[in-house]
Amino acid sequence: MTRPPLSGGRDERILVVRTRYVGDTVMAIPFLRNLRARYPEARIEVLVEKVSGAVLADCPDKDELVSWELPRPGHPLAPVLATNLLRLAEFLRGRRYTRAYVLKRALSAVLPVWLAGIPHRVGFGGEGRGLLLSRSAPLTPHRHEVELFLDLLRADGIAVDDARNENWVSVATRTALEPLLAQLPPDRPKIFISPKSTSWEREWPEARWGALVARLVRERKCEVVFCGSPAQMPFHERIIERAGPATVPHAHDWSKRLTLEQLGGLLAKMDLCLGVDSGPVHVASSFGTPVVVLVGPTDPNHWCPWDAPTVVLRGPVKAVRRWGWNRAEAPQAAAPPPGGYGVKLPGGLRGSSGGLPGHSTGGLRWEPGEAAMDSIPVAAVWDAALELLDAPAASTPRLRSAG
Question: Are the C-beta atoms of residues 361 and 142 closer than 8 Å to each other?
Fold first, then answer.
């Protein structure tokens, strides 16, 4: 078993594997900062997928983003997946990495690293992955994703700092955003809405989004901004339609106008981000933008926004209705969960060198289990939004310049 060298890593070529979704990828920022602190002279490259990897474009703790598209799990053509993994292994072998950190649980992420012959490999154990790794960390249930990533460094004998979050905006992105931001009246609060997720079970009914947006514009004089993939625009349009004609001049959908990298710069300028468990919510929290997140089947212990002023809204834990209800007109639950819908984290959720408070004793902030999105009422989201909008601004901006 190899051990981390004592030098600053001048001769090290380090690969970090973090493919797939935007939210998962942006959560690697504390990991990359700590890795760079241990190996200040090493070359660090991050294997990402072309689209989601853009959220790390301005991160100074990596030297290069390496794009590679992998077939999705369950791909009907198994030979296609196998051929792709072999091609990836050959590609990685040619880059002569000395160390690899695999921030994914899938065996398909570990296998090409092993086949590439990278001498020192660190990843998550279990399900046969440990046999292909030099060192491994356990996948502790209900532990936050950021802390799980940092556990890989701890397993490799690397010290971890306070796990703070951060993000950067390039001069080019600032310049590109100026004309759009100039369209928003400076005296009106700017609210970003992220209503879509990669799974419909994590979405909130559009009728409730419409009611909430109408109230934000009417009662708090807000400007509301949407920006997702072009495929999400019909959903945005239906929300605005439900909000009513008076909302239209104050609702802006920039889905076709901004890249993912520019979306980060936009989120850094928002007064509040309201959304379901989705990539933009986690990007917003990396800039310290206050977040109200609506959580359904996913575990908020594992996936809540990291290190930003946050209110997490969740219904009572129960059997989730996966079929048989109209997502646009879902009925509202009558009884709130014990203690109410919201859990406020004024300073944001952040761990320490020993992990999240409470995890050492098995304590959790949220009850394990699944909750249905249709059980969260509009009133709870409204109250949470006002709580963060009316809170004093952070004394130290999170936004950092790059490039």
Answer: no
Query: Which of the two residues, 356 and 250, has the higher pLDDT score?
Result: 250
Q: Cα-flanking dihedrals φ and ψ of residue 383, to 5°?
A: -60, -40
Residue in the block written with tokens 């990533």: 149
Please name the residue ranges forming H helices in 182-232: 206-220
Q: What is the pTM of this model?
A: 0.87
pLDDT, averaged across the chain: 86
Model confidence at 398: pLDDT above 70: no
180-194, 281-295, 307-321: range with lowest mean pLDDT:
307-321
Rounded CA separation 371/225 (Å): 27
Tell which of 119, 138, 161 closes a domain: 161
Please choose, from the candidates 188, 187, 190, 201, the residue with its C-alpha nearest in 3D space to the C-alpha of residue 227: 190
Under 8 Å between Cβ of 167 and 400? yes
Cβ 285 vs Cβ 22: under 8 Å: no
Query: 20-67 pLDDT, tens per residue?
Result: 889 999 999 999 999 999 999 999 999 998 889 999 999 999 999 999
Same domain flag for 47 and 63: yes
What would the mean pLDDT of 348-352 be, rounded to a whole number?
47
Q: What's the rounded Cα separation, in Å, for the pair 92 and 14?
A: 11
Q: Does residue 100 contact residue 118 with C-beta atoms inside 8 Å?
A: yes
Q: Does 5 fall in a domain?
A: no
The C-alpha atoms of residue 171 and residue 162 are separated, in whole angstroms, by 28
Mode of pairing for the β-strands spanning 251-253 and 99-102: unpaired
Q: Are 101 and 181 in the same domain? A: no
